[in-house]
Amino acid sequence: MNTTSEHDRDLAAKLRSLSIEPAAFKTELPEPHIRRRVIPGAMLALVATASLAVFLFYRPEALERIETMLAGFASSDPAIYIRGAEAPAEDGAAVERGRALPADEAASPALPTREVTGSGYVVAPDIATVFSKYEGRIVAVEVEAGDRVVTGQVLVRLDDAGARFALQGAEIARQSAELALTAKTIELAQARSSLTRTERLAGRDAMSAQTLEEAKTAFDTAENAALQARQDVAKAGLDIDRAREQVEALTVQAPISGTVTRLDAHVGDTVLSREDSVRENESLLAIADMATMVIDADVAEANIALMRPGLRGEAVLDGFPDRPFAVEVSKIAPMISREKGTVTLRLSLSSPPSDMRPAMAARIRLLVGEAGDSTDHQQGAER
C-alpha cells in the first residue's frame, strides 16, 4: 500500500530540485560572490536531509516549519539570517531570540557599586562646659536643662562677700590716691612759683646761688611726688576694675547660644574657682549648639581608599529607625585607630530628625561607584 500522499510527493520534488550536482563545482577557486552563494546551497542540502528525517519520524504538522525554513534559505539575500523559535513572553507577546538590539536599546555598562557601612554617634562640635571663674555660693539658678539660651544670658548667680568688700576697698583706695594727687599738685605749684621768684632775684644779684639751687631741688621733688600720686591713682583704678570683674563674674553668663544639655548647679552649693575645677563633674552646666550637630562614624580601614570628602550616603538613628536621612562626608580623620582598625568620618547632616540629640547611636551607609557619585566626582574634578 502506498502511504505517500500528494503533499509528500510535492515535498520530495522540491528537495530534488534543490539538490546540488557535482558538475556545478569547478576546480579553480570561485569568486567571492559565487562562494557566498555556494555556502548557503551546501547548508540548504543539510537542512533538506534533516527535514526529511523529521518528516519520517514526526507528525505532519512539522512540515509547515520545514517549508518556512526552506523558503528562508531559498531567498536571494546572500546574508544568512536565522530566527529562533518564538517563545511566549509573560504578556503573551512573542519574543524573537535572534533579533539584535537597536543602538538606543543597548544598555550602557553600569559602574560597579560598593556599599560601605559604619556606625558612630551624633556629636555637637560646638559645646561649652561652664565653670565658675571664682569661688562663691550659688544664690540663684536662672535656667533648667533643655532650655534654649543665647550668648550673654544669665545662667547662675553666686555670692561672695569677700569680692564685694574688695571692690569697696579698691574704690576707697582710689579716692585716697586722688586726694594725695591733689595735695602733690598743690605742692608742685608752690615749688614752681618759689623757683621762679628765686631765679628772678638771683638775676639781680639779690639771691645767693645756694638758695637758687635749693629752690630747684624743691621743685624737682614736688614734681616727682605729683607724678607718683598720678600713678597711685591709676593703680587704684586697676584695682577697682579687678575687684569689679570678680564681682561681675559671680553672675555666670552663657558663652555661646544653644541648649542646656546638663545642669549641675543647685542653690546653696559652694563652687570652686576655675583654676581649682579641672573635672567636668565640677562644672555648673553644659551648653550645646544643636543647629550644627554632625555624626562621627567609624568605617573599616580597608575602605579608606574609597573615602573622600563629598561622598554621599544615608544614615539612620537607633532611636528613629524609620526616619533615615541624607549625609555627606565632610572630613576624614588623619589617624587610624590601631585598636579597632577603623578610620573616623565626620558627616554633615541633611534634614535630620528634629528631636535628634547628641550621643545618639547612628548607622551609616555610603554607596561608592554609583552613577550619581561618579557624576559628582567628575564635576568636582572639572572645577
Automatic annotation (TrEMBL):
Write out the entry's keywords from A to Z.
Answer: Coiled coil, Membrane, Transmembrane, Transmembrane helix
Q: Which family does it belong to?
A: Belongs to the membrane fusion protein (MFP) (TC 8.A.1) family.
**Family matches, as InterPro entries:** Beta-barrel_RND_2, MdtA-like_BSH, RND_pump_MFP
Task: Indicate what this protein is called per its UniProt record.
Answer: RND family efflux transporter MFP subunit
> Where's the CusB-like beta-barrel domain?
295-366
Lineage start: Bacteria, Pseudomonadati, Pseudomonadota, Alphaproteobacteria, Hyphomicrobiales
Per the record, the coiled-coil ranges are 212-253
State which residue ranges cross the membrane. Answer: 38-58
Source organism of this protein record: Rhizobium esperanzae
